[in-house]
Amino acid sequence: IVRATPQDFGTALSIACLCGCRSAVVALLEAGANVDSEDMVRAWSCLASSQGYTTVCFLMLLHVPQAGKTPLMHAAEKGWQQIAQYLLAGGASTTAVSTVRTLRVACTVHIFDAPCLLELMAVGQNALEWALQSGNDKTAAVIVHHGAELTSLSRLRVPWLHLAAMNGCADTLAAIVARYVSQAGRMVHALQ
After folding, report:
1. CA gap 177, 99 in Å, rounded
2. Collapsing DSSP states into helix, strand and coil, what is residue 130?
3. How far apart are CA 129 and CA 28, in angstroms?
4. Which of 65, 90, 162, 164 is most open to solvent, judged by the fewest CB atoms within 10 Å of its CB?
């Protein structure tokens, strides 16, 4: 039952990670919850029709099966450092990527004469990128310490060191530099 995914939501573990409930995360991990499950996502599309000064916006709910974020991505985005540590200790993948496109549009559509902002999740974003772009430095550093892959570029085609610097994540910068120094030291030692 802890691995079940209700039709319109994620697993219980994803929901616990999203809400930051550490005790529920621990209990679900101990009960064998799938640490790398993706949640079910609802995507919104907006249809608008303009009549004079008022624009009416109709929202349609579209179901996108098996698309979304893993529990670690939720914890990373929200900055739940201890939850990220529990998930990583339980074998969560640092390389899994989200599968729904980003759409952030400040559109001319208005709801009750207020501007409408539509946003969906980013495709190809891993837990480290979720943490860095949300400014969750300590959580990002934990992900780096647990072996996040740093040789590739981020989804934005930026090196991880630069992405950490752009988001003011000093602890993550230190963790990345320490990894590079450690790898360089091993290479020098191997050559001697």
Report:
1. 29
2. helix
3. 25
4. 65
* Nearby residues of 47 by Cβ (< 8 Å), 6 or more positions away: 57, 58, 60
The gap from C-alpha 108 to its chain's centroid, in whole angstroms, comes to 28
Calculate the CA dihedral of residues 26, 29, 35, 39 and round it to 10 degrees.
-70
Distance, CA of 118 to CA of 68 (rounded, Å): 17
Encoded tokens for 11: 């697993």
Answer for the pair 49, 37: CB distance below 8 angstroms, yes or no: no
Instruction: Say which residues have a Cβ less than 8 Å from residue 186's Cβ, sequence separation at least 6.
Output: none
pLDDT at 78 over 80: yes
Which stretches of 9-158 are DSSP H helices?
12-19, 22-30, 71-78, 81-89, 127-133, 137-145
**CA end-to-end span of the chain, whole Å?**
54
Beta-strand ranges (E) seen in the chain are 41-51, 54-64, 105-111, 114-118
Mean pLDDT of the chain: 75
Three-state secondary structure call for residue 117: strand
Q: Which has more confidence, 192 or 43?
A: 192
pLDDT band at 178 (very low <50, low <70, confident <90, very high): very high
Residue 113 identity (one-letter amino acid): D
